[in-house]
Amino acid sequence: MTTEYIIRISIAALLGGIIGLDREYRAKDAGFRTHFLVALGSALFMIVSQFGFGDVVGTTGYRLDPSRVAAQVVSGIGFIGAGTIIFQKHVLKGLTTAAGIWCTAAIGLACGSGMYLIASATTILALLCLEAFNFALHRFGARTVSIRFSAPSKEHVHHVMEVLERAHVGIGSYHMERQEEDEGHHYMVGMELRLKRDRYITRLLELMSDFDGVSIENVE
Asked: In Å, what is the CA distance from 129 to each residue of 35, 115, 132, 198?
């Protein structure tokens, strides 16, 4: 029976690692090792829940409910998933990775129960979802870019906004601050722009060439 347990946790780790490799390739915070360990641990929890209390089964006053440990894994994995979600510059990041970890835990539980076929099918579907989402996001999605520049006058700032408007670039937010110097004053402006992902760098460089009289301080 021990051999069967080892097979279960090995398959769980393998399937979880496959999803982790995809996340590692996409340079996500939770990569191969995280998904590998989540699936491995979930499978072991399920095995312990099902077979780890055999010495007390049937004993008066004891009842065995294997679903209780599985339920705790489902809720407990949320803490790891929450750690991958961040809110930065008005953009929520990490939701897909958190969902992937949650799905990997389910795959581990399935393998721990010996449900290899459904676990494998879930892995394939998860990979299809992640890759299809990445393709669609790169092809049709938009990216938020923060840009900071200095301009000698408000007219120059208005010119920049006109150039962006003509180019159909969305401005998520912006702020402007007047700074005094010995030789006069200038304006520091920060903007968050929404550009298509497929060629946002090229597009941004093209737009910057039209910013006459404006000095770009930072782009990220």
From this structure: 16, 21, 5, 19
Q: Can you tell me whether residue 94 is helix, strand or coil?
A: coil
Task: Give residue-wise pLDDT tens across range 202-212.
Answer: 666 666 766 77
CB-based contacts of 187: which residues, under 8 Å, 6+ apart?
A: 150, 151, 152, 153, 154, 156, 157, 176, 177, 178, 179
Distance of CA 85 to the CA centre of its chain: 7
| Residues linked to residue 175 through DSSP beta bridges, in sequence order | 190
pLDDT tens sequence across 56-92:
555 555 566 666 777 778 777 877 777 777 766 556 6
DSSP symbol at 198: G
Cα-to-chain-centroid distance, residue 190: 26
Whether the pTM exceeds 0.70: the reply is no
Please name the residues in contact with 50: beta carbons below 8 A apart, sequence gap of 6 or more.
Answer: 66, 112, 113
Taking the CA atoms of the chain, what radius of gyration do you get in angstroms?
26
User: CA-to-CA distance for 56 and 62, rounded, in angstroms?
Assistant: 7
The DSSP output letter for 197 is G
> What residues form DSSP beta bridges with 195?
143
